[in-house]
Amino acid sequence: MPIPGTPSRAELVGHLVRTRIAGDVATPRENNLSHYRKLANADRHYWFGLELGDRWSDEQDVLAVMAERAGVNDDPEYRYGQDTIDPELTVAALDRLAGRLRKAADGQQRVLLATGHPGGLLDVHRATAAALRAAGCEIVVIPEGLTTEEGYVMQFADVAVLEHGATLWHTHSGEPMKAILTAMEREGRPLPDLVVADHGWAGYAGQHGVDSVGYADSNDPALFLAEAEGTVQVTVPLDDHVVSPRHYDPMTAYLLAEAGLS
């Protein structure tokens, strides 16, 4: 169950493992490897709005980065069964993310928050937006009337999301973020100083030259590759859709406390 208040680092590590946000996660090894292979084979669905060229055409190179940055098993011969996210890597990335949030707060920067995984991470982003606003940041209001082939781009609880059929939509696409940034440029509005997001929302923002930080699962390698290349500043490894979204509350509390925002 969620830890009341703000956990210590050790308490958070234990909580991440118990709730399978990290540790032995639900995503199986064969799914991870399948996604690494598809990214290496230039399936753009797995590029998350990034332009990876032919730099990651060897799936073993992708696996090596994922072992280093997310903590999956580094043995290329391990093909089936349980895979892992190292909770220490998760917390270390949260610490780096906290540093970037602190910089945003200190500079009262313009911040855009977005999620392609509203079923898991919407409230993480909402709480982050509230804390940044309280610290004096401007939470970017997106232009109205934006659409992609998948649906409507809109804002809910200060977080940009994709809506389809009156439902908040899960998407890997970078097109919603592209629609936002393109519309802002067309209207002559300054782009965000920072994007806090996940999936293609974070990937496209980083590719577009905006400071971008985000969360990613062990079967979503693109943002980890982007962090390795410097296109995305921070990628936090975690299971992005566990049994209850409340399980992320201690993680969010820890993040905001480390950023000096709670």
From TrEMBL:
Pfam family name, one: Phosphatase
Protein name: Glyco_trans_4_4 domain containing protein
Species whose genome carries this gene: Streptomyces azureus
